[in-house]
Amino acid sequence: MNPADTSDLWWRTSVIYCLDVETFQDSDGDGCGDFPGLSRRIDDLAALGVTCIWLMPFQPTPNRDDGYDISDFYGVDRRLGDLGHVTDMIRIAHNRGIRVVMDLVVNHTSDRHPWFVSARRSRDSRHRDYYVWRDRPPRGEQKVVFPGEESSVWEFDERTRQYFQHSFYRHQPDLNLANPQVRAEIARVIGFWLGLGIDGFRVDAVPFLITREGIADTHDPHSFLRELHRCAGRRQGSALLLGEVGLPHEDQIEYFGEGGTELDMQFDFLTAETIFLALARQEATPLARVLASRPRVDERQGWAMFLRNHDELSLELLSEKEREEVFAAFAPEEHQRVYGRGIVRRLAPMLDDDPRRLRLAYSLLFSLPGAPMLFYGEEIGMGELDGDLGREAVRGPMQWDAGPKGGFTTARRSRRRIATGGYGPAHVNVHDQRRDPDSLWSFISVLTARYRSTPEIAWGDLEVLDAGDSRVLVHEATFGEVSFIALHNFSPEPVTISLRELPEGRTATVLVEHAGSTPQGEHTRQHLGGYGFRWLRTSAASASAA
Question: What positions carry a catalytic annotation?
Fold first, then answer.
């Protein structure tokens, strides 16, 4: 496939930036971020090299789960703006060449959604069958997502004397996807936002849409995902469905569907978790093993790569022993862990703010085949908030300048806590880092540019090469006559490795490298400093000269 002929597959080579409007930029001094504030910051994202903004939920909400408890699928939370502000932001982003996707949360609603308010008034309510009700919880019920906060996925409703299902929190009743009226409502929601200019959706909690009670078709559970894909495609041919499927690779494959009929892209959770295991061990072997076995997908499908996101860093796909290794290395204190499976820290503090390790991690993120995703603040090395805050610890306000509130707001008082100490705005902010060529922001802007100008990363066939040293990962992506090779040293000690000789008539060009890593003699001898890395492109001499 020629990348020049794939404009409808724009997401394959996108640089995704996840943000929460509420914590990004306050424009009116009320202490809460909003869409006008986000619009003012689009140029900052364009300068970084972002090509796709992922908006976390911004619809009306009681806000008991960071906006994932939606009470109106068609509106905008009044604290954040209105539909006019949303369309203005989308227009500005599109003018800068940036696409916009949003969360599609259709597993459940808030218990304050009018549908559920109506449903729990009476068993005869016309919205009763919009949700999943039972006289008693079934035997062998599914495990809870939030142990310690919920003990069951069924909640008894006193008024109507039945139990309703909630896969997540009890204030988030599950929608009954077996009801055609519910599926029709979801189709209207998709059409509404695509009509306003949204370019696609990050589909929340995908496995729950096909594996719990109240799914669309028990005989063909994936039919609902095909229905979503058809619905989005009819309204906008290039619309993206990016799925949150936290499963092993072999189980994720079926969520793509035959010939690209379900999800277009999925987050690669197993690789993300294994990266942290490799960092903890200072050894590339576990990551090399996972990448070597990652299934190839259809050319119209792809992986979204990430290090951190808005939730805990889940380690659920690792073994118990591996999980304990990562906990010991990166979350030694109990309040830094949640649910026995995850870490609620940002990346910079996890890596002790070591510039070598941070650059190694981000070099790896942008060099692995897939579309890289950044969580807001990662580009400047923001830290988590202090205290036992659970997942809220990683959701502090964006830090734009060195002022006491980080340029996020001018409000005298804000319920949003600001990071303090060495990770406070005086030390970590966009304004200063954009003007410093040696800053993390500047380094990531280089990575985005190199990634965007190296299509073989996204389109090439992945091969993990034998580095001859367990501390070093060497992977290659070949596309046509051009190959991309990335070398990463996971240890603090310098290493020298051997690469296979280049065929006659081919040359190697260095695209990115760590300051402490220098070539040693011919292409076959590569020296990497501690936590060093290098990106190479190999091609025919004529292509290299061009």
Answer: 204, 244
